[in-house]
Design goal:
By secondary structure, this protein is an alpha/beta fold. It has a single domain, classed as Rossmann fold, CATH 3.40.50. 42% of the residues lie in helices and 24% in strands. A seven-stranded mixed β-sheet has the order 3-2-4-5-1-6-7, sandwiched between helices. Strand 6 and strand 7 form a beta hairpin. The N and C termini lie close together (10 Å).
């Protein structure tokens, strides 16, 4: 895929290997990488997860931390010679879903911005719709909105990869 503009959506469950795959693809792109982190360390366990992800990244990678205004962040950092790695969309969704106005605005902005971004973009997200239906209303809404977002992003992306047990399955686009 040389110098092309390529958008890749990487889906999988928790600890499926999706982030590690995205990191390998970013490294193999031969471009400067900007890691776009959407997580916030709200508790000690999340801080530990963030530290684990940080420790795996090459020191040369740039870092952009953006928990809410993802589309604006992507516009600022995208370039023909860059690879943006967004990890992860479901954490971003959790950050924006609490405020309906922010959610609608930021979701629309992401879907509008993504197709026009230059360079490579790797979007990592948790596939949360494969388990039991959650009991709470907010949890069900989260699963529903994540599923809708993934469908929209899958249409907009050149490649979609599902990862389970560390094994990637290309669902759309060129093989890895």
């Amino acid at each position: 895929m040389g110098g092309q503009t390529v958008k890749t959506l990487i889906l999988g469950g928790a600890r499926s290997g999706k982030s590690a795959l995205a990191e390998r693809l970013a490294e193999a792109s031969g471009r400067g990488v900007t890691y776009v982190a959407t997580a916030t360390a709200g508790d000690a366990e999340m801080a530990e997860r963030i530290a684990h992800h940080r420790s795996r990244r090459p020191a040369a990678w740039a870092l952009a931390e953006e928990p809410v205004e993802l589309a604006n962040c992507l516009k600022r950092h995208a370039a023909p010679d860059r690879c943006l790695l967004v990890d992860c969309l479901t954490l971003w969704l959790a950050n924006v879903l609490g405020d309906e106005e922010i959610f609608q605005r930021e979701r629309a902005a992401l879907l509008e911005t993504l197709p026009a971004l230059p360079g490579r973009v790797l979007l990592v997200s948790n596939e949360v719709g494969l388990g039991v239906v959650p009991l709470g209303e907010l949890s069900r809404r989260f699963v529903d909105e994540a599923g809708r977002l993934h469908q929209e992003l899958a249409r907009a992306c050149d490649r979609v990869v599902f990862v389970a047990a560390g094994l990637p399955l290309v669902m759309k686009g060129n093989p890895l």
